[in-house]
Amino acid sequence: MTRTIAMGDPRYFSVRGGANPHTRNWLGLKKRVNAKLARQQWHQLARVLLDHGVDVLVIPPNPKLTGLVYPANAGFLYPLSARDPNKKTAISNLEKRFYLSNLVPTRAGERDVYRSFMSGLGYQTQEICARFEGEADFFPAGDFMLFTYGRIEKQRFVLRWGLPPWRRIYGFRSSLEALSELSAIAKDRPILPLELILETHYHGDTALCSFGPQRRFLLAFLEALSEDSRQRLKAAFGENLIPISRPDGELYAANAFPLEHEGRFYLFMPQGVSQELLVQIRQRGVEPVCVNVSEFMAKGGGSVKCMILDLGPSDEQPEQPAARSFREKHRYLNLFG
To answer: Once rounded to an integer, what is the mean pLDDT over residues 221-241?
Structure first.
């Protein structure tokens, strides 16, 4: 196996909190999930990843915690690899730690599930105190760690002129206040803070995706970022920055998962991405793999990457007997065959 990831069992996937714009219709009512279709799409994604050498681990379902299907918000493993070329010294696996998110209130109960799961895999865990939602807002890109944030709002309905005579305020998921904690963790790796401005793109991984060798290329839906953030991205990435169109941005084309397998580079993307963007990705020596996860996008506001928690190279997973046993117990192939 090339890489190990975690995905959340979709058995109880539904809209409970309705905490992002994709979960509600124009009247503000929560959408209903087609459970059968969602499960089919989830298994399709898992099996495509397996076909490309990914070791898929499954987080058990919980009927009260339907957001477990989006484990990218669980937190982040740092560093992702002991072979991180951006670190000046060798890294021991013992230095790796999983940093737990401080999730939006409607999903706060998930933290205990993630803590238990990561501990079972053999990782030490540590909590982030500021409002912060994991590798969805903090991930590597070339020489940098990108950190995306936005204004934290109390989610609520407010009156307005028009039909319907109200609108819902959602806000964003990670606060700029988390930057000091993240800087202490990343230490000698520069962090590039970027401000989100579209509530439909409430996590950074809905608008940005690094991929290819050393993850040096960057897909960017620039309309989701403040003007200052756009300029800093352009200065930092130059010709390696690939702006994406509004239709691709609204499809969450950037909510994609990069992978290197057997010397080739891949990018797993939502089905429906424009041919123009696919050509641009191939021109950089990366093969796009498109998967239909429309039920998760249209009803839950999360696409391919939201459904994946990256746990780094498979040959760097903790090897204590208890951790190996736990990993074996939660492997997709052992659970679903």
So the answer is: 98
